Here is the input.
Amino acid sequence: MTPTTPIRPALAYRVAITGARALTIPPALIDSVTTILRHIAETISCCATHASARATYAPDPPVLRLISPLAEGADRLVANIALSLGYRLESPLPFETEIYRTDFKNTVPEFNTLLAHAAPRILELDGGRDDKPAHQFDESASYQAVGRTAVRNADLVIALWDGAPAKGLGGTADIVAYTAHNGPKLWWIDLLNPTTPTLIDNAADLRFATARAPRDHNTPPPGPPHR
Here is the structure.
């Protein structure tokens, strides 16, 4: 019997996004996101040329994926930039799609367009709303679950965050802390100073980075507290 050549997977790299829904988008923020995503693409393309990569992976071009739950604000901003740079989109959702759409009464067309880009790589988690007591998970736990799902399936996380302390489960600070304690590495783009992203490798890095950027957080940030 003639031995068969094993099928080799394509070299792939996944980036997850977490961040605020209520988001002001200055040019510096767009520039920082674009720079990070381009750097990742260039680095992975370079890695694909190494002899070890050529021996391990299929000869196809590397696959770049952006994992985004497609909430308003940071999720969609980074998803749109990633798509423009050739990334493929995949989307875990905290609830069934029809339930999740009710979060975005004024931006459903944009949500539908991005969701179509993600298809068929869409994962509907079994989250529940606070007004549906029959569900196993309440709303905050559902947002936390989808954020952690994105992190656990990523090679790198990008956080668009103002550095404010966590105000509950599933918020950006909660997901940033989870990433810092459990990996992978995280690029923090400070919404109050987006020109200089900070690479966070662990919980100590996160404590140091936030201590270097003191600010007044007495006033809660605008927008839903769970994002």
Summary: The first strand starts at residue 12 and ends at 19. The CA atoms of residues 187 and 199 lie 5 Å apart. Residues 27-47 form the longest helix (21 residues). Confidence is low (pLDDT under 50) at residues 217-227.
